[in-house]
Amino acid sequence: MSAYLALAVSVGVLAVIDTWLFGVPLATFLPGLVWVSFIAWGCFFQSGAGTKGLTTAIVGMAFGALVGVVAIWALMGPLAGLGDLAGPVAVGLGAFVICLASRVPLLSTIPASVYGFAAVAGATFLMAGGETMDPVGAYIPTVVSIVIGAVFGIVSELLANVLTKKA
Question: At 113, is the pLDDT very low, low, confident or very high (cuts 50, 70, 90)?
Fold first, then answer.
């Protein structure tokens, strides 16, 4: 099988498993967070795949999610007095921190951190469901979803390699 077709088959089959995993056995703990898994999976490949892609996706996205938690906390607390500017200022400060942190080699892939920031923000709003937002409570489910997605990335790469016809 060509590498192109092998990767398509691998990703397609594993996408079914990933979606089922989040929809059935993990639905209570990770409600609706399959999209975070897919972002991490994409980040894995965007970051070069292999060990580097796995590390970048997990570390970068988890860091970005942590920055997102702090930004949402600031939005609800110290920045709340800014009214309509609280959200934009919180996001701007988060982006500033992510860019500064990119000097650290493990955090040098800025998009990975941005994906994590966005993922925890989305998870926070999704999990709040009209209630008070709890970014800290959304952090662990987000990071677990990130790890699952990155692992699906490396498994899909390995499976594609197995399926690829060797010359």
Answer: very high
Rounded distance, CA 167 to CA 160, Å? 15
pTM value is 0.93
Give the distance from CA 51 to its chain's centroid.
Answer: 17
Decide if 117 contacts 98 (C-beta within 8 A): yes
Q: Give the pLDDT confidence of 35-84 residue by residue, as tens digits.
A: 999 999 999 999 999 999 999 999 999 999 999 999 999 999 999 999 99
Report CA Rg, the chain. Answer: 17
User: What mean pLDDT comes out for the span 136-157?
Assistant: 96
In whole angstroms, what is the distance from residue 41 CA to residue 46 CA?
A: 9
Please report the pLDDT score of residue 167 as a whole number.
55
The number of distinct structural domains making up the chain is 1
Mean pLDDT of the region 95-99: 98
The parent domain of residue 40 ranges over: 3-163
